[in-house]
Specification:
The complex is a heterodimer of chains A (about 260) and B (about 500). Chain A is an alpha/beta fold and about 260 residues long. Chain A has nine helices and seven strands, in the order αβαβαβαβαβαβαβαα. Chain A has a single domain, classed as 3-Layer(aba) Sandwich (Rossmann fold), CATH 3.40.50.720. The N terminus of chain A is likely disordered. In chain B, the strands form four sheets. Chain B has a seven-stranded antiparallel β-sheet with strand order 16-11-13-12-18-19-17. In chain B, strands 5, 6, 7, 8, 9 and 10 form a six-stranded antiparallel β-sheet that branches. In chain B, strands 1-2-4-3 form a four-stranded mixed β-sheet, covered by helices on one side. Classes of the chains: A alpha/beta (about 260), B alpha+beta (about 500).
Chain lengths: ~260, ~500
Amino acid sequence: MAAPDSSTQQAAGGLRALVVGGSSGLGAALVRQLVREGGRVAAIARGGDALESLAREVSGEASRAGGVLFVHAHDVRDTAAVPALFETIVRELDGLDLLVYTAGIMPPVGRTEYETEKDLDIMAVNFGGLVAWGNQAAQLFRTQRAGALVGISSIYGNRGRKGNPAYGASKAAMDNWLEALRNRLAGEGVHVCTVKPGYLSTRMNAGREGMFWVASPEQAAAAVLQAARTGANVRYVLRRWRVVGTLLYFIPSFVFRRLEF
Amino acid sequence: MPPGLAKPAPGPRRSYELVEGWGMAVAAPARVLRPRNVDEIRACFELARRDGVPLGLRGTGNSYGDASVNAAGHVLDISRMDRILRWDPATGVAELEPGVTVRQLWQRILPDGWWPRVASGTMFPTVAGALAMNVHGKNNYVAGTFGDACLEFDIVLPSGEVRTASREREPELFHAAIGGFGMLGCFSRVVLQTHRVHSGNLKVKALRAGNLRGMLDLMESRRATADYLVGWIDAFPGGAHSGRGLVHAASYQAPGEDPEPARSQTVSYQELPPTILGFPKADVWRILRLFNNDRGMRLINAVKYHVGRLEAAHGPRLQSHAGFAFLLDYVPNWKFAYGTEPGRRGLIQFQSFLPQAAAHDAWQEMLARCRAARLVPYLGVLKRHRSDPFWMTHAVDGWSLAMDFKVTPENRARLWDHCRTMTETVLAAGGRFYFAKDLVLGPEAVARFLPARDLQRFLALKRRLDPEGLLQTNLSRRLLEPLAAGAEGR
């Protein structure tokens, strides 16, 4: 009976990993990196096309490194479909060491826009999907007493900004939920990590003005894997963002509401 | 899909997990289905049928071996059906959903002056699991097994039909499903008779004996007067000290003896202390792990035996029911001292049941063989039993000795060989085994310890109620299927 043994898997460099939101940006960079290390990787994204081209792109590298990539089209708002798809993926990967939830949307929100459906859709993708996938992973990881769950959150979750209330709230919800799972599972051999990338040069941020200290998706992917392996709790991709993120908590409300951050 | 937080799929909750035996020496990934009502139990049967795989029934997974592991299919986990349906403090009858745990039960009934008639050594099993494995407590010799405390149950058959069984109504199903390790159907309602108590405390007396003969004699001398009896033995020393240990004999308090039963019967009074010698209990297993080797355990066992002298010199003391009954829960997760790699490291418990006359010599021979093989159990527990009417029962009019062995990837094959040899000794002495503990027996051993009549009528009932063989576990494939195949061939 082959019991999962994460330590040997990790020593060999080849993680069995699932990236939810793996077709573009940070997710795609993670998939490339994991496959390059010889991992057995599954990637999930809403559009099948981007996934297929990613699969074609990495197939050569994957076979050279001994890795393999499986792709699945899935809308993370369809939480009812998650348990079955999770099982399919764990079976094809022959176990699971790491789940990274990087699916997220940040539609522009007008300064006078108060749209319930739009706001709740943001919550559904960014937070609801994490809960659905994270709950499945938590049950597997705690029973095998090994595994890492990483959620890609945002520094925007640290405070309630004027700019995009639902996006910030979804990230704050992620932060709190991930911290709670981290505390719940700490004694059971499971690691839960929150990553706050700061600005990334990805499609989500394309054309966005006023970005600074921008990291590449590749840098962010490396930071995610390092955080998962070393057991970091909250990880900012560029260290200076941690300073900003921490200071944000201390800005008094009457000052914060005057900032255009 | 409309925007917003989507609804979950209808039907039983579902996850994909590593399902392990409590002793951690066996584990297999499986789809785990958690029904919330009878319709969802039926849906679980249908799902397994549609996928063409067998379904294993599981409570909270407290069987040491592979009784609730199913490497070949799905697992039905009954723990979500955990409502207490009816509790009558006048009669002590409790009507329960199958996933109610022994813990929920005692916490509900003790403030009214009742206690489970049979309480397992841990409070976490579900009543369905306890019934399916027909578990016992430290009072087996007076109160019988868990099945003896059951008045009636409902069971969902693989066909989807729900049947009600009791001693009067469907007595065959009653005596086969209790102890039938989930092979005939899934319990969906359990009615239990509980026991009247007049205090939250027991009077507990410790006694010490220098060898196994002394232990058995001590326990026998207390059998007529004690309500509970349990012996602990130190399996390390040989010669004249072989089987030395401590006996704990406990008795209920008589009406009026406890001046404040309302206080001692509260849940908070019963709760086990949160620290042990100043350490937070949740982390004590990490300290135990340092001693989890032959030298460390030889030391701990010896210290326990010698410190027992102080306890034995003392008169009877009061101990809460929970503190006395649920010894295994005293140190949370103590099993992790044996390792935390499911399926690779852990423990097995080899518990043999022997008739009164044969017990001493057979166990002395087994203990000597353990020492010679350098496979010494880290824990040995003696209990007194009586026979019961259930077809697949382990209980005998005699004794049981439970031995905990550490399992490592290195010693596994050798340990299994060792257990095979001990099994032969037990069978030759007319002994029995217990499916809740087992991970090592072969089908031929079962065919030898169960009376042929009981085994054959059980197999026949299994064929009738579950003709497609939907209900299976690793245990049933290991022990029952080869016998069923043999029976059909005949």
